[in-house]
Amino acid sequence: MAAKVFANEQIRAKEVRLVDEAGQQLGVVPLAEALRTAKERGFDLIQVTEKVEPPVAKLGNYGKFVYRKEKQERGARKHTGGELKEIRLSFNISSHDRETRAKQAEKFLLKGDRVRVTLPLRGRQKALEDYAREKMQTFLAELQALIPYKVERELKREPRGLAVIVAKQ
Fold this sequence. Notes:
There is one protein chain. 37% of the residues lie in helices and 31% in strands. It has 169 residues and is an alpha/beta fold. It folds into two domains: 8-78, Translation initiation factor 3 (IF-3), N-terminal domain (Ubiquitin-like (UB roll)); 84-168, 2-Layer Sandwich (Translation Initiation Factor IF3).
């Protein structure tokens, strides 16, 4: 968890905007009164945010609050940009195979994943880089006809061939 969550006596503000366990606002109250209310109802006083003046404090179970917040952060990290899937083209790929791979890339993009398209070059193929770029451009044009995409990393030469990363628009 990135930021420490303050609860009960750890809260340093003189007064807080109090929210009860049901989410109803109880208004701005002194810290001592908010702590007393929390104790009477059998809850912890949790500082939700300190970015506003006075800070917002909520009545609730501290352990559950921290658990939910950590779970929410894990979920947010998990779904940023999708997974990176790879489609490999070959130097002498046929038009039908190219279409099949374009459809597979479309499925990945629709699912929200990013797609890395690679065309490995071996031996004498490295001398024919222009031909390989042409093959890659043809594939990207076929993919564009199926689904609009944006290029995250431009088509560039890598040690083992050509690669480009695309994502859904």
